[in-house]
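We emphasize that the prediction below concerns an isolated chain of 370 residues; any contacts that depend on oligomerization or on bound cofactors are therefore not represented. The input was used exactly as deposited, without trimming of termini.
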Amino acid sequence: MTARFVSALQDARRRTLALVAPLGDEELERQLDPLMSPLVWDLAHIAAYEDLWLVHRHAGEPLLHGELAARYDAFETPRSVRGEVELLDADGARAYLADVRERSLAALERHGLDPVVHEMVLRHELQHTETMRQAMALGALADGERALRDAPLEGPDGWLELPAGRFTLGAGADGFAYDNERPAHELSLPAFAVARRPVTNGSWLTFAEGGGYERREWWSRESWIWKEEYDITHPPGVATGHPEAPVCHVSWFEAAAFARAHRARLPTEAEWERAATWNQEPDRTDRGRLTGLGRVWEWTASALHPYPGFVAYPYREYSEVFFGDRHRVLRGGSWATHPRVSGPTFRNWDLPQRRQIFAGLRLARDGSTR
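Result of the prediction step, given as a token string:
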């Protein structure tokens, strides 16, 4: 088990370094947008997080660079100031990554594997490479990755109808899951229908050209104020992207307005999870599945709240500090999400006005579509 984990850890690092290898130091060190970190901050943050958890907390050893702990803590140094504070340069960040990895592998050999903590650190790096791609999408994304993002959808269209019934939401007790995915619990859902495919660029362009950003009745008060204040129009890439590719970089505000314009709504996260796992239930076939899963994160109607019986583990800052009505849940993963991270119970979240993530939507309706 330890050997397999080390292999996965090293593979993740190769992916991280390969992602930034084509970029010059200047590109790594500048902040492309206040909502995104300089890429060099992400690199050093990955190192600091690994050192904190695998060497300091798991093995009980001092931090390699205690003086850098606050600078590379996501809460102590928010994104808005990461372009202003003094950071390690590109060479320094790469050296920090290498030095911490040597320490964490030595600590693993001496103290053994913690299946939760070590897996958490591995997934943390995989998640940050997606965050880095979000920044790179502003101008430094490789052509091959743009092609992954912009490829047309395949599979059937239409609606998947699900009857009323009991459903288990969340991750079971076995295996790794984040604290906000547990405990699994049963709930009753009324009948609903969900679109088999995410909304496409072509559909969004029709919405925008048909007055989607002018029709006040489709927007909530809060979302209309946001749209007017920031002069929001259709997301970048909609007009130039493939019409059958999923629309991307959509805010929750826009997604909800699009749904209203189509006499539909966003699915709740329970509905999303039930629909995404429908073909795994007894007597279900591929005719009962969604298509386009994993192409874009999909906004849900749900705010981020703990499941009944939630217990923060291994630290409350991963989930608990974000609970409440401010953040909306996204499900499913994107083209940039590593398969080890994405899964039917994984809960992502962001503020409803955010557009920087690779996010789109899938429509839902009450009852039957007939």
